[in-house]
Amino acid sequence: MNKKFFSIILMTVLFAALSSCKKDTPTFTVTFDSKGGTPTPATQTVEKGGVVEKPTDPTLTNYQFAGWTTEDNATSPLWDFATGTVTADMTLYAKWVQNSYSITVYGDENGTASANVISAVAGDEITLTATANSGYRFVEWQVVEGSITLSAITDNPATFIMPDEEVEVKAVFVLLEGRYSITVTGDENGTASANVSSAVEGELIILTATANSGYSFAEWQVIKGGIYLYTITYNSAIFNMPSEEVEVKAVFVQLEQSIYNVTVTSDGNGTASASVFSIGENEYVTITAIPNSGYRFLEWQLIKGDVVFSRIYNLATFYIMPDEEIEVKAIFVPSVGLLESIISQNYINWRPITYIYDSQNRITSYNYVKSLDYNAAGDLEKYHWFEMRSGKDITFSKNSNKIIFNYISYPYAAFQTIEITANGEIELNAQGLPVKMTSEFVQYHKYANEPISITNWSYAAILTWQNGNLTKLEWEWEDEQGLNTGIKTYTHDDKKTPFHNCNTPKWALWCLSYDWIYAYNVGYGYDDKYVYSGYNENNIKTETWEEDGVTITNEYTYNDDGFPVTRTWGTGTNTFTETYTYQ
To answer: What are the structural domain ranges in the chain?
Structure first.
């Protein structure tokens, strides 16, 4: 047998073996169900482990084709033609998502209209509702876009079945019989309106005009209708409705505003500046004073003009008055005179308190308070306090005219646990002074081996100011025992020196109202009611507060520099005295 013949025999055997192996690989049938779409793809025969060839996407009117699934339901996942393999006969079902169409409904100047939904699929029932303005009534629906059949064009509400397209419908309104329309407009320099958009004959109509900034109202112009305006030059005018439609226009003119100079100087022991140096009447000015080293700010002196300062701190504000120039001067004094210590005979301040100040006359720490952190504007951002048995932190942030604060106390002593968390806000007026405080407290208390008790209470206070001094404080707080209210009033002396134990600028000190003062109930020992200790105690002669039938009075005496040297307080039978010393 030669080599050529042997090769032919070998190739024949191998071909037969390969043919035998190929016939042993199973195949499966893959069919498609388009679920009403067209075209339906042809059936495919796929070997085991093979992939299905992706067919052309079918289409179905008013539906979007999403893909093919192995189960005929909405939740079955889509078949992945790139990675999905065939292991048995199978059917792939077309998955469809019905189209959703928008519904636009509106009225006219005499009324409004709406639908119960803003989009829907074909076949949904839609409800339309029209609401007429005062003096008008609904007339009919007008179909602007879409092939719909309303239950009736005069129905209100009306219904229709959603078609396979976008829909737009308008509601039409007309005047009630015997009523006439009123049209009021302004010009590009202001707006105007009437108290009603239509009226019956003889009805009293009120017109109001509002000028844009820099403009003033000039007059009313009657465009249409026989009316008599009782005045044409007041921005609020009246007339009696005639038996016809009326149209009135408000006319505005530009103000001829004068510009005035603002001059800010100092006595040489510090610097002073204003936010602006020329200004129109009734505009807002901020003035700032910064002392030199060794000095502190004392007061603002008004050299020229007629303004009222929001406060006597080194950061103050005022509104400029008409027709005048303004000149103010910052006065500084040597930094001696800052409060150095308080010696008190009551059981709370059982040891002298020593205060530390910075160059801007702001307290930075004292015995228990380890740090007070201020931002560049002088606002307190964090207050950190602790003594032998406990501590607390208060953080502050500003949001528009509100101060948001977060308070937490924490214990140090093992035998006594008092933890307090509180969140609240302080509302400021245009001058940056606090006028309202609200907060919510939660106290966790445990003494020795007693079980933990939890107390929840809320606190609210309203403050009244005069010439930058607090004159009245009204508060209420409520816990499980019910509502408690109180009031605190102040009278002030004629001293110019601002004073407070914590002599901080601006609003921050009021946030430190957690330095409570105990109120005493005569005959019952110490009461557990707390009373807010006050804010910005400038030049106080007396302060009196009342709570739960208890009245407590503080009285101050002052030295020649205007600083208090004693504070006496109590309920008559229980009185205490603090003595103040200075640097």
So the answer is: 39-98, 100-175, 179-254, 259-334, 339-582
Query: Contact 93/65 with Cβ under 8 angstroms?
Result: no
Q: What's the pLDDT tens digit per position in 153-187?
A: 999 999 999 998 899 999 999 888 888 889 999 99
Q: Which residues contact 152 (CB under 8 A, 6 or more apart)?
A: 158
Q: How far apart are CA 520 and CA 258, in angstroms?
A: 58
- Which helix (DSSP H) or strand (DSSP E) does residue 511 occupy? helix 508-511
3-state secondary structure of 534: coil
Question: Which amino acid is it at 33?
Answer: D
Strand order across the 215-224 sheet: 198-200, 179-185, 246-254, 215-224
For 489-526, letters b (16+ CB in 10 Å) and e give ebebeebebbbbbbbbbbbbbbbbbbeebebbbeeeee
Question: Residue 576: beta bridge partners?
Answer: 569
**C-beta separation of 97 from 130 below 8 A:** no
- Helices then strands, counting H and E runs in the chain, come out as 2, 43
**Cβ 97 vs Cβ 106: under 8 Å:** no
DSSP class per residue in 165-219: S-EEEEEEEEEPTTEEEEEEE--TTEEEEES-SEEETT-EEEEEEEEPTTEEEEE
DSSP character string of 274-316: ES-SEEETT-EEEEEEEEPTTEEEEEEEEEES----S-SSSEE
CATH number of the 39-98 domain: 2.60.40.4270
Query: Residue 503: what pLDDT?
Result: 42
What's the confidence (pLDDT) of residue 95?
92
E strand or H helix that includes residue 5: helix 3-23
Instruction: Look at residue 345 in the predicted model and tell me its pLDDT.
Output: 54
533 in helix, strand or coil?
Answer: coil
Per the DSSP assignment, residues forming a β-bridge with 462 are 436, 474
Q: Which of 139, 246, 232 is nearest to 201 (CA)?
A: 246
- Which residues on neighbouring strands pair with residue 204, listed in sequence order? 240
Q: Under a CB-based contact definition with an 8 Å cutoff, are residues 566 and 580 in contact?
A: yes
Pair 489, 471: CB distance under 8 Å: yes
Q: Closest by alpha carbon to 346, among 555, 530, 519? A: 519
Checking if the pLDDT of 534 tops 50, the result is no
What is d(CA 231, CA 225) in angstroms, rounded to the nearest whole number? 16
User: Cβ contacts of residue 188 below 8 Å, gap of 6+?
Assistant: none
Per-residue confidence at 527, pLDDT binned at 50, 70, 90? very low
Residue 17 φ/ψ, nearest 5 degrees: -65, -40
Residue with tokens 């190739």: 11
Distance of CA 319 to the CA centre of its chain: 27
Task: Give 59's DSSP letter.
Answer: B
Identify the bridge partners of residue 316 per DSSP, sorted by sequence position.
287
Distance of CA 154 to the CA centre of its chain: 44
- How far, in Å, CA of 443 to CA of 450, rounded? 15
Question: Which residues, listed in sequence order, are joined to residue 447 by a DSSP beta bridge?
Answer: 416
Is residue 44 within 8 Å of residue 72, measured between CB atoms? no
pLDDT digits (tens, 9 = 90+) for 394-453: 788 888 778 887 877 766 554 455 667 778 888 877 666 778 888 887 776 666 666 677
Tell me the CA distances in angstroms from 399 to 405, 427, 433, 453, one per residue in order.
11, 10, 14, 34
Whole-number pLDDT of residue 250: 94
Q: Distance (Å, rounded) from C-alpha 21 to C-alpha 23? A: 5
Distance between CA atoms of 356 and 363, rounded to whole angstroms?
Answer: 6
